[in-house]
Amino acid sequence: MKVVNPNNTTHAISIIPRSYVEPIVLELYNEVTQVETIVANSITVTDGILLITFDFTFLEGDKYQIKLSKDSEILYRGKLLATSQDPQRYKLTNGVYFYG
After folding, report:
1. Phi, psi of 35 (to 5 degrees)
2. What counts of helices (H) and strands (E) characterise the chain?
3. pLDDT tens digits, 40-57
């Protein structure tokens, strides 16, 4: 699962795809609204790792499915979560319940 910060509009994710071909189409599918969006992106390959940089406005708690493709070939498929929390300490119920 990839994590992005919704406070930023420019995001970068690193992956190891099935192949390194250009141009790559980045599709984001919102699991709640069921809207699919194709996002303009730029890619960089360093030491076998593909870095994808793109601009998109996420809301806190948004969950997406990611698909990278070239023509009909799927290069990568995964999940993406938008949160401003530290990914190592992520809690789904952060700020929902008040204990006091």
Report:
1. -105, 130
2. 0, 8
3. 888 888 888 889 999 999
H helix or E strand, kind and range, residue 64: strand 63-70
**Residue 65, pLDDT above cutoff 90:** yes
pLDDT at 93 over 80: no
CB-based contacts of 54, cutoff 8 Å, min separation 6: 10, 11, 12, 26, 39, 40, 41, 42
Residue type, 16: I
User: Token pair for residue 72?
Assistant: 């009909």
57 in Cβ contact with 5 (< 8 Å): no
2, 81 Cβ separation under 8 angstroms: yes
Q: Is residue 3 scored above 90 in pLDDT? A: no
Q: What is the mean pLDDT of the chain?
A: 83
β-strands 25-30, 36-39 pairing: antiparallel
Sequence-separated (6 or more) residues with CB below 8 Å from residue 1:
78, 79, 80, 81
